[in-house]
Each structure stands twice: as structure tokens, then as C-alpha cells.
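Everyone, describe these C-alpha cells:
***
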Amino acid sequence: MKNELIRNVAIIAHVDHGKTTLVDAMFRQSGMFRDSELSTERIMDNMDLEKERGITIAAKNCSVNIEGVKINIIDTPGHVDFGGEVERALMMADGAILLVDSSEGPLPQTRFVVKKALEGGLKIIVVINKIDRKDARPREVLDEVIDLFISLDATEEQIEFPILYAVGRDGIAKKDMYEDSKDLKPLFEAILKYIPAPEYHTDDYPQVLVTDLNYSDYFGRLAIGKIFNGTIRKNDSLVCISAGNVVKPLTVGNLQIYDGLKLKNVDEAQTGEIIVLSGIEDVKIGDTICNKDHPISLNRLHVDEPVVSMEFTVNTSPLSGRDGKYVQSGRLKERLFKETLKNVSIQVESGEEPNVFIVKGRGE
């Protein structure tokens, strides 16, 4: 069976191909938000570094409601350096939108993310964006996208992808280059038609794969993930299965779902929903939250191994101690190991020398 009231879709694009602008337009045309909530551009880029550089670094979730169907939008980094963010984001999705610039075409970073989406068996909708550019070449770019899919060993079904043309800045999508469209209705229709609804079995016990973590001053550690099976209810007595099949009990203290740009408290959530729950402090990305009488773990999240490493240490120059709030090695260690709780693509180790820490990651 399928939960036809939900679609989970990731948005894939290279840097500057217009992904965040398109997501802004989807928000504006969904009718769910007041103008005051959408007063800024690039709503999903809420980290300081994202705003400064105009790129997506951390995968984030939000939702819109179209024709009674909730569409959970997963904003996915388009850079191989943030590979861990890409892989955990795609674990929550049932399909993806591949956004490609009509002039530049698919670039190397696009290849990495598309490869992960195809390996995950996601249904992909291709959107050729910025067709209003003077140097636009949409037909040639479409051929390049097809060549990309073939080079990545896509199946025949995956290569026969739906195609849309868009001007994301103006909030316009078209099924055909010459179609007279004034909004994103064709894109919303394509999502409802082609992105599969989450599947489930009525007799399945609840299973949630933890794909992100957060912290609340009120509720403590928060586990974020997609419900793969069953229903999760507030105050449920469940267990968390960590690496090595270690089972730890938990009681769902607070349960939330994404409602537009915010979180909404609910008493229960169904299969396919992306939830935020509290009730366990010792939880890590990749853990499974499930029924205590049938503790069956989902496949753990796999992330490509790091390719670069760097040593971090306290400042030993003549200028040390003249600037900075937290300059002790203990503070440095605390900050680095805290990052490993939320960033699955980096590893932190103690160096051979005192006060030296080795950080390994996918990129600089």
C-alpha cells in the first residue's frame, strides 16, 4: 500500500543553477505562507556561510501542500565536499528533481549527486532552468543530461524521465519550451504524478531511520528521520538500535512534523512522514528507532570514506591569546567532536602530539 497524501522529493542542482530560487517560488505559489514569512530571498539558505556564499551546505527540510497532498521538500547540497549531507538527505526521499542550467548543462558536481540518486532507485524529474538566458541551449543540455544518465548506468526506466523547462526566478515551469505558462503548476502536477508515494504494509511495526540530529533547550536531543513503516505516536515506548545492534529504550516525549517552514506538534505521524522526536539522548545518525517487541534495524546510512585530512591545534604563534573567545585545546576538542554528531561525512581523531586533532572529510 501507499500513503498517497505524502510525497518526499529531494532537489538536486549544481551551485548557481537556481535551486534555492526555485524553492522560494514553490513556497510563494503554494498559498501556505503570509507575505511577511517570505520577505527574504533564498529562504532555505539560513546558515551564515550559506547566505555569504550563496550555496547549500546542510540538507534541510520544509513542506508545501498542493491539492491536499503534502510535499516534503529536501534541499540537497550540490557539492561533493558535502557528500555526507547528500547521502543522508537522499535517504529521506522517494524521488528527486534534477535542476540543470540551460546554458551550462550538467557539471561534475551534478554527476556526483545524480549518481547517488540513481543508485538509490529514486524517480527523477529533469527541470531545465533559466531558459530565458540569451545563451540558453536547452535542447543540447537535454542531450547532455541523457548522456549523463547513460554514463551512470541508469536503467531504461530511469532514462525515460519527465522533462520540464523553467524560469525559476519568475516562478514559471513549462512542459514544452513554447507553452504559455505563468506559474509552477506544471511542476507541482509532475511531482504528484511521477514522484511515488511512500509504500507501507498495514501489519508492519514502526521503523524510523535517523538521518539528522538537533538539540532543543526544552526537549534535549532531537532525532530527525523518515518513517519507513508503521505509525509513531507521542508517548510510545520504543527502542533505538545503534551501531553493533546495541538496543536502548526510549519513550517518545515530543513529536513534530514539518509544516511549511516551521515544525508542528502532532500526536501521531504516518508512514512516509519526516518527523522530529525527542526521548533519547544517546542517538546517532544511522540508528533505527523501532518497536521494542520487534527490534528490526534498517540498513545503516552509508557515507563515502573521507579523502582529505587536516590537523587542528591551538594557536602557538606569537599572537596567540590576543584574540578569540575559546582558545583552549579542550574547547577545540569539544567543538570538533560535537560536529561529528551532526556531520556524518567527517571523522575526528586525536593526534600523536598533545592538543592536536586530525579531521578527515570529503573536501576542504
